[in-house]
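sorry to bug you again but im stuck and you know this stuff better than me. what follows is a protein written twice so to speak, once as letters and once as structure tokens for the fold. mainly i need to know what kind of three dimensional shape the backbone takes. anything you notice is useful, everything is just below:
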Amino acid sequence: MRHQIEFRHLRYFLAVAEELHFRKAADKLFVSQPGLSRQIKQMEEELGFPLFERTNKRVTLTKAGKYLKEEVALIFKNVEDTFDHAQLIHEGMEGQISFAYVGSAMQNVIPELILKIREDHPNIHYSLREMENPEQIDALLLNDVDLAFVRLEKVPKGLDIRPVFEDTFSLVVPENYELENIDLNSLTQFKNEDFILFDPSYSPAYYEQVMEIFKQSGFQPIISHNTVHASTIFRLVENNLGLSIVPSSLKLGYDMKVKFIELNQMPQRTVLSVAWNKSNRNPILGKILSKISMRK
């Protein structure tokens, strides 16, 4: 990197890259517009290539500018996190760590992990955010969270992943649903029922496992609704709008008028995994990962 480019150049560049408007960026930075324009021009001269394409009507990022915007945003995020971590250390804390998770992880994995953290590292501050699988991956790539508990088999380059919990599936029916002589080796007797399932976008791998259960039972399900929220699924089942198949651990976290029939005779299993960014420099991350082991 050119030594003449200073931290303020990056701050000014990021403001213009976010606003795509020099006057608005100048107002945001509390500097004059001509002064801001000179700083950006100086940065481009030092780099030897343009970061913005300017016309009378608009400002856009060049391809190099788009790349630099993402990288500079990460630099500022890392700096901010470092300062926050230093503040916590000054206040007597070991540091902080943030978790993202799908709802079913809160039924057993997350509470057990927090108990371990509190027992061995009582001075670690942690935060929790329930998010859908795709959102968790985006947050990891941006270093917005440190650990993500997802139902995915693969993650993008730069991330790492490992399984932490293997779960059976359960058939979910209304509380008053008549169940006689149910065959836990097949769902054939339910082939004429409507099903309410997690949307494929929730997790392609998870959805494939559920579809495999129906395939093994010899029929294609009638899918009346798709959603990414377990509470929506249970509310629809409760109101006799269909049946569902979900991870068995979800029966622990809801109090609705539904029944769970565990399909433990079927070979399909759903796996909860923990994922993290391999470039994450949070000094607490390694300590937390060492406490996460595979359980069934």
In short: The chain has three domains: 7-84, 93-165+272-289, 169-268. The longest helix spans residues 63-90. The domain at 7-84 is CATH 1.10.10.10 (Arc Repressor Mutant, subunit A).
